[in-house]
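Bug report (template v2)

What were you trying to do?
Predict the complex of my protein with LLP.

What happened?
Run completed; filing so the output is reviewed.

Input:
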Amino acid sequence: MSTTSISSIRTPFYLYDTDLLQQTLAAICAETEKYDNYHVHYAVKANANPKLLKIILDAGLGIDCVSGGEMERALEVGFSADKIVFAGVGKSDWEINLGLDNNIFCFNVESIPELLIINELAAVKNKIANVCFRINPNVGAHTHANITTGLAENKFGIAMEDMEKLIILAKSLTNVSFRGLHFHIGSQILEMDDFVALSERINQIQDRLDSENIHIEVINVGGGLGIDYQNPNTNPIPNFKDYFQTYHQHLKLRPGQSVHFELGRAVVAQCGTLITQVLYIKQGSFKKFAIVDAGMTELIRPALYDAYHKIENISATKNIRLTDSVAAVESEETYDVAGPICESSDVFAKGISLPMTRRGDLLAIRSAGAYGETMASQYNCRPLPQTYILEELGQE
Ligand code: LLP
């Protein structure tokens, strides 16, 4: 066991709580075990850190990937190819070949030209590729406009009116095997009614296909379950019970069908924290800035989507706990917490209340386990963030 303490590590860095990840996975498995033929493929785009992937593998989940790089990462960690689904509107030939060479469970196909290329590349290898069609269900999700995907205006999926045409085409091709349908309406969805709407749309589609004697085996409903960014301490595990129950109650399955889920954020968001150090407290003309050493290069969500992440001053909290005296609790101040990157949007939070904050204090930017490390960049020639596992660090 390492004796490194949090305050001796160079900031900024990601800190992962793998106990919480394990509890989250246990909650997912407890719910899916209640239903026949429910399979979860972890959406590796949310976080591809090998240490976390190993834990997700051990819990028995499969993988949803959207690039050859993600597929390689999943295979390196040990995920079995027969639990890998591969989606994406723009699959390159080498990525399709990688999927074919490894005999992945399914390609989620997003267009006719893509279907024809998969058939062609599979023919060269004398293989038959399993394909599902990603259908754009034209179902809105109550979430940020940049992360809704299931509307007719979005670039994703195949229009419902073209579905039969594609299925008939797939059945006529010799090197693809049509297995079912795939959907994904968006991300950070907290209203179960959105998943009800998707289930109802799938029911309509299935009725239509039944009347044309088309049977499907696989129904993949995508991911999208949201998390509580406001209250990571009191609500660390998403509501998997309601999520899976919603599908169980509303999705009408035919005999032998399996239901597949592609959860990303809900699996890993709460187990990750971005730790950053305060460099300067700067008094502006009408507000105070806490300038920190992490920026949009480590966590782009606030800059890109105006996303909220709870921020805690863990140095101040620690002092309060150590002295255990009400008198020692310093007054709160209002800050904009901003990074060092040369962009005005490089701000993690505006006008938030923190205990009096000083140079050298460590801030914890919470719920950063999903779409944090994976979206990091090297803008301004910054190094990619280091990562640590909470359980491997010694106590302060
Ligand atoms: N399946 C498909 C086809 C997807 O496009 C996505 C996410 C997922 C599954 C996983 O969705 P989740 O369960 O994580 O909601 N960078 C944004 C989120 C983009 C989500 C893209 N697709 C953010 O930071 O909020």
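What did the reviewer find?
The chain has two domains: 18-269, 270-393. The two ends are 14 Å apart (CA to CA).
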